[in-house]
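Researcher: Here's the sequence for the chain we discussed earlier.
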Amino acid sequence: MKNFRVGSVVALMLYFGVPAALAAEPADSSSAVAPGLIVFSSDRSGPWRIWSVRPDGSGLRALTEATPDENDVDPVFSPDGKSILFSSTRGGEVGLWKLSLGGNKPERICDGDQAEWSADGRRIAFRRQERIYVRDLVGGGERCISPADWPHCSGPAWSPDGKRIAFACRWDAGNAIFLVDSEGGQPTKVYDKQGACEPHWSPDGTRIVYETETHIATIAPDGTKNRLVTYFGGVQRYGRFSPDGKSIVYCQGASERGPWELYIIPAQGGTPALLTEGNSDMNPDWH
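Model: Thanks. This is the structure I predict for it:
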């Protein structure tokens, strides 16, 4: 069974595949795409670090530095685009860190990984010991919002209105995507076929992009309007919507072991445009 959320710190350390050609034919990367900035994890400098690139492929640069035995992964923008959360092994413990894009040093928040901001920027949802938590960034209070008897939860993603959190859970029978009230409660199932996991909302809240065992798909929060976006050879993962909801950035590998490269594709499907190449680039987020 697929180990979903392979972008977690521990799993990412294992992803050092050998070069191989990807099956999808890249489109002209100069095609018109939404403006903004994309952050992602990359091992192009050796250890995993956080990098950024513009949607047209220009302006590639590293955002984090650390010791050779420390790894930074899973970056996600704050709602105002001025900071990012990321997961790191800095200090020998897996934890959540905040980095201001203005140039300040990273600040450790708490133990855990796979974090995402609430729409108002005051809270984060994250994973700790395979359960989903919400943390107040001002007071530091926390609460667990995934059921106590649910194993292997991952990838929390806040809805744009701040009322719900999508996440994935894995049982022996497979993976499934659920929604839960951001204050807690009984989760409701969105989809449980084809290894569904890694959900992320569209900016208008009408769609969720997720990954199957091998492809990227979108679905309405009520479980309707399910459709594939990618259908190429290889493996496509970690889809995120552009700020205008018209495009999706994702990573693709020749196999589950990579190497991974970033692509951009219209949200309704179409021909993907190659964004990065060289080593492995994963976990993109777009603001």
